[in-house]
Input
Amino acid sequence: MGFAAFAEGIGMIASGTTFFWLIGGVLLGIIIGALPGLGPSLGMAILLPLTAPMEAGDAIILLVSIYSGAMYGGAISAILLNAPGTAAAAATTFEGYPMSRKGDALHALAISATASATAGFMTIIVIILLMPVLVDIVLAFGSPEYFLIAFLGLAMITVIAKGSILKGLTAGMFGLMITTVGTSPMAVQPRYAYTDYFDFTLTQGIDFVAVLIGLFAIAEMFNLAGEKGGISRTGTVISGSVIPGVKTVFKYPVNLVKSAFIGLGVGAIPGAGSTVSTFVAYGESLRSSKNPEEFGQGSERGLIAAESSNNGTIGGSLVPTLSFGIPGSAATAVLLGGLIMHGLNPGPLLFSDELATTYSLYLALFIGNILILTVGLLFITRMSFITRVNAIYIIPMIIVFAVIGAYAIRGGQQVWLDVVTVLALGIIGYYMKKYDYSIIAFVLGVVLGSIAEENLDRSLQLSEGSWMIFFHPIDQPLSFGLVIVIILLLFGPFVKSAINKYRGNGD
Output
């Protein structure tokens, strides 16, 4: 039955206009992803009503292709302009943009396309082969595990924060503080809303996409304003081949595979999404590197980790969406709406009567990665010339796009709040970088704070206030395992340092 459904899924992709919708969706997604502030969820939401007259299969494949293309497209502006097109691409800026500053934009873009597509190929094949097992794993995760995954990401601050650990922790706590603004997720009580002072309220909170746009795009434009010339600080003319970038990805096979499957695993956890997975993969790549001092300076390993986990997340995030109707990310929430709108209800039917449709979605992602690799290497890499354009032309364009992106995030009364957030975080980000406060730690706090808070509250309600829900090795073996990993991550470096010091004294 599975082979017949697989063959039928191939037929669905190849029949009629479906294949052209797939191509159009990927190309449109790349454009949407490259524009800061839009991202896959907003782009899909805008186009969702337009799919109403389409055939169900065509509509869903169009949406999932936009999702795939946009997740890759976010890296383009992240590498060239330090303006992540998607929230997940924030991790890409840490290594991709420094490479552009050194005149290696073409190399970085080639690495991005290759790592993204290769991770997509690997994870999709594994999902198709192991779908029943993955569904069981997703079912094993509850609120305690979600909280510990978020806490694991926060614990990465001790690994990835450069310079002073105190400054890194301070930046991380500042990010966490921003997530407390708005309505409490469990008590439904406004916090720091200041309704008596503003025409608009802060009850909906500060949007983390606006934070990222300001923190990266606007802050970097302030930084460029004090320099002459273009983004690239070298005097060389950008030229060369994409082949070295392709070879670089396969020079680190363990890093590539590990990061791809971190993306797959974290992406399959409902609500975690690609932003969490890219930071976890990036932090793990830094932790396991023999040359951690290279990170933040244009590390190839760091860029591969961020991009491979980013695309690896896509297939994983579809698992809970199709299996249980639980979105793995904001983009898959829109996709879920598309499924229901076109009469495809998530659940057992998508793995029995509609199994061919499920296969067609993953086959569309697989083919989409071929297109991403082709377009990325042949065309997107040629955009590296942007890094040679004088900054006086780039700065006003990026600021305009950033403000437009802020307008598009939520609309309504929140428009001005998002615009103010973008500009304010731009100033804060500029001074954080100037005085060597960890931007990565700050972003981790912003991204993971609300996830950690919500699932901590829910876990303690389930256990009636008992913290043993996280530590019981028999009743909660998965939680207990995650606690052990967190302890090793936090205290492992100190133990290793003590052992090395002891051995040194012994010699």
